Amino acid sequence: RTLLWIYLQDILSESASITGFHIKYEKDSLPVQAIYKQEVFPLAAVSCPEFSMADLANARVLAAQKDTNIPVCAVKCFNDYNSIYCTVPNLPAGLLRDMANMSKVHIYCHTNDVIYADNEYVIIHASFSGEKRIYMPSKALVYDGLTDKKLYGPCTFFDFPMEQYDTKIFRIIDCEV
Question: What integer pLDDT is reported at residue 84 of this predicted model?
C-alpha cells in the first residue's frame, strides 16, 4: 500500500499524525518550482510548505526545488505501507508513474500517453507521434477493438506506431485464465 499526500496535508497541525512527515508552512515563503528527471513542475511557481530536515533523515527524496535542491517530495517506508509526501502540486506524469511502479501497480505504457484499461479493453490516446509499447499484466490475445481482427498474441507486450492525437482501442483476451 502506498499513500500519496500532495501540497497542504497536515497544514493546520504541522504534525506527522496523518502523513508521517513533519512540515511547516510560512505564508511569506517564496514561490518555488520543483524538478524530477529534468521535468519542472508546477508550471507556475507556488508558495509551498517545507519538510523538517530531521524528518528527512529516514526518508528517500524523490524530487527537489528547481533552483535550491531543497527536497519537495519524499517517501517513507513503514511496516505495512509507504507514505509519499509532495509539498508542491501538479506532479508530472513521470513521477506519478514511478510512484505507481514503486507500489507494484501494473503500468501499461511508459510514455506520457493517455491510457484507459479495464478487464477487457486497453485504449491509448497518443500525446505525441512515435512507436508505442503496451505491456499486458499477463499473456493475452490482442484484437482491434473496432473490427475485432486479431492483431497480436499470445503476448505479454506489443509495439505499434501512432500519430499524435490518434486513439487506438484494443480488446484483450487473457490467455492465463
Answer: 92
